[in-house]
Amino acid sequence: MLIFFPCRLVTTCGLRFVAGAEAPVMSDLSDLYNRLDRRVMSEAELFRYGYPRPGNAPGQARVGTHHGTYWKVMPGPRKHNCNRCEKIYEVDSEGWPAVRETCKWHMQRARNGVHPCCGLRQGGQSCQTSDYHIHCDIDPDNLTGFINTSSGAAHDRSVLALDCEMVATTRGYEVVALTVVDHRCRPVYETMVKPEGHVLNYNTPFSGLTAADLRGVTTTLRDVHAKLLALMGPRTILVGHGMHNDLVWLRLLHGHIVDTNQLYPHENGWPAKSPLNFLKKRHLPPLNEGGLKCREDTVATMMLARLKCGFKARP
Q1: What integer pLDDT is reported at residue 10 of this predicted model?
Q2: Is the pLDDT of residue 220 over 60?
Q3: How far apart are CA 71 and CA 48, in angstroms?
Q4: How far apart, in whole angstroms, are the C-alpha atoms of residue 111 and residue 252?
Q5: What count of other Cβ atoms lies within 10 Å of the Cβ of residue 89?
Q6: Cα separation of 299 and 182, whole Å?
């Protein structure tokens, strides 16, 4: 879509200025790509921050599980760390808890001996209960089913941002919603995804999703992989916030990454990280994108990347 303004265009040193406008309008994709390309993480940084990297065989990945990464390793065969109450529990061959017991936890960790979520004191009664434990453990020796964008169809220099929503299933965490936006914050791909396991928790306070949202969804992760390989290639710059999490559950290997955690480092230094909501409130105007929650987060990460490179947050 072309929008015409009743003003004169002046070009100086690669920037396009609109006469009478308050701020310069930079030539969009090429300049943004070049500026972000200088901020792409190195291979060592990708491994340090827990991003999946190619393994020894096709479709295989490896991740760092050292201090500061997101990952919890399975404590043993068919054993997991509950992501909520932190108890170690066993599962059967299909991923269901071997022993039926109530999971008890708090939505927020205690501060000064009190849980902010409910006001109850630490060590006392829990404010949340569930019939199932859930986990986000990985088996670092068995990370398979990954695709690599080095074989993607897109060979031009593009900039995309990505964010996913996950639910807890009998297979661990699974991607059930995905949004990809271009360098101008416009959605280019958005879909719901049918999980492979049985859903144990929809993570509704964070994902915004319920059982009704997944009813009738037929798109599989394999379908998503095919679409992403059509959109991306090895030269695509992919922007996200703490995207190591998204890429592992998405089973996606990509080496040209800009992480807003690194663009906007926490004042206490790594491994401390600023939540995306904090960065949104500090740097961006209120957003109302509609649709999936991951759409707003994807747009926000692209806006933050644009700001850091000297562009308007949104064209």
Answers
A1: 36
A2: yes
A3: 12
A4: 37
A5: 20
A6: 9
